[in-house]
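Hello again,

I reread your note about wanting to compare the complex against the isolated chains. To keep things tidy I'm splitting this into two emails, and this first one only covers the full assembly. Below are the input lines as submitted, including protein chains and any nucleic acid or small-molecule components. They are followed by the predicted structure of everything together. The single-chain runs will come separately.
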Amino acid sequence: MDLENQKRVLELSEEHGPENIVVLLGAADAEGAGLAAETVLAGDPTYAGPLTGVSLGLRVYHVCEEEVKQEFDEAVYEEQVSMMEMVLDVDDIHEEMQSFRDEYMKF
Amino acid sequence: MAILKDRKIIVIGDRDGIPGQAIALCAESAGGDVVFSSTECFV
Amino acid sequence: MNSVIKGTSYILAHTPEMVLYNGTTQTTERTVNPDSEYLKELPKHLRSYEEAVAYYPNQVYIGNVTPEELAQIEMPWYDKPVEGAERFGPFGEIMPNDEFLLLIQISDEFDLVKLEADFVEKVRPALAENPVVTPAMLDRIKPGVELAEIDKFVTEEAAEPLYFGGELVGCVKRAHNIDLNLSAHVLHENLVTKASGVLSVLHALRSSDVKAEEIEYLIECSEAAVGDQNQRGGGNIAKSIAEIAGLQNATGSDTRGFCAAPAHALLEAAALVKSGVFKCVAVAGGGCTAKLGMNGKDHIKKGVPVLEDMIGGFCVIIGENDGVNPELITDYVGRHRVGTGSAPQAVISSLVTDPLEQAGLGILDVDRFSTEMQNPDITRPAGAGNVPEANYKMIAALAVMRGELERPQMKDFIAKHGVTGFAPTQGHIPSGVPYMGFARLGLMNGDFKRVMIVGKGSLFLGRLTNLFDGVSFLMEPNRGVKKEDDKAADTDEIRRLIAESMRDFAHSLMLKAEQEV
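Full-complex prediction:
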């Protein structure tokens, strides 16, 4: 994840408390989604950014995952995201995200 | 309890997946408070 | 009459040492983590020049292998070298690092590039053999200096070192002690963009029947910013390239728009020619050192060679309609508007279906879409997926939503109307334009009736707007040489006429209604 974005995630978690934060991702594939999830759950796996060694355990979901999708206004999701369900491998992404959440999510 | 409602939402979009702005609109529609939205680019 | 695409070029330069010292992933790592395992490990994962030449996607880029042939090769591609791979191809060449360093010295007007004397003498004959390098360029080669002098500039005056084969062979000096925009780092970056732009222009001249003096205007469309602290991004790399490439009758300017800039620049060039302002306009983009090794960490983690070791460049020459070359259609173009938003569906509609609707055409009427041609061998191991394929899936999904395609046909559509990605991840380089060379040939030999070039840009990276951007245009065979028996083309023409008359009819009805109110 971009180093500046990592910095903002860290600052916002400190400001609002990690228990109040949800991270939503729009990654193009399962691996990218997994890398970003790992970063905000367990720490930066590339050892480059401010989240290196910081295990925030934040709630994190991909925007196409059922858990969060059911909470969106249907019409907004339809217009903004739905087409991408035909493009992305949503099952793959979910599986990857879930494996990281099972291991590291604290909330 | 809902995941998004009344929580602080951080959006990390992807230019080749779903961009930040599109995700932020969804999050707001679920009652989330978007505190940061960005779109990453790997290319 | 529409303007035509008279020639295209695509060049690469192999620059493994610039991966180590100039790519931002590596320079960042050096700042935050100077003793990292990654920096120690990286040199072992760099490719030799021969490996870079034999790499399938590179051979496609210079035109020796087609994207269709590449699609038949099972990924990954880095472990399947092309047998008998050549340095030169119909579109350009893959230049070795040493010759490229000398080309940078040739491109330097301010005595900022210092190369070691023996190195210059050793490399000069090789560059002299290059068919596109002009005698005037060879005359510009400056004699080298002692290594001690270079060493002094690097250690005492913050010069950017230049390496070949692991040895220090030169440097780029800073042009100002305080002004960061004239620092050695920035000048190195800009000189590389300039030199690769020069090589691109020279190959475009070689591959077309256009003479250097015929080009009246050059639009440069890279992502480099040229200027001092009082006019950062002041620009006109274009004119500096034109000078070295010997375009004596040209002026020029730079067009910027992140990865979408080449598509914007081509529209501008086509408009300048179609309107009669200039008869012949070239569009060129040199490469970018910052992006070298951008995904190196992931490549090394996956045991993949560091594939982002190539500086890319391209040039397209647009001229007056000659009745032969394919036309760049400006009657209907796609554009991402401010009001389009960032939803992928809206973005793709604005770029793909909006212009087709204006033309009275459907998605299936386009034989090939060239969206973003990033090489998936590079992006997939980095968790960035297959960018061109994702774009084709979006176009296919849109076709399904519009009822132009059945969902089970999506895979076939992508295979038939898409192009396998082969371009280096050099920002603006992959965006639509790398396929224009193959498209031009396919439109001329009757393989294609219509090709769409789509450029997309991530404006939000500059932190001035959160907006996305993009423009698109169609390439079609020259209407002057349309074959009588080409019924398919005739059908399209009829459809176009019907769409036009329906629009006129609707317009007249509206006018009538307004009058009645």
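For quick reference: Chain B touches chain C at residues 15-22, 37-39, 41-43 (CB under 8 Å).

B.
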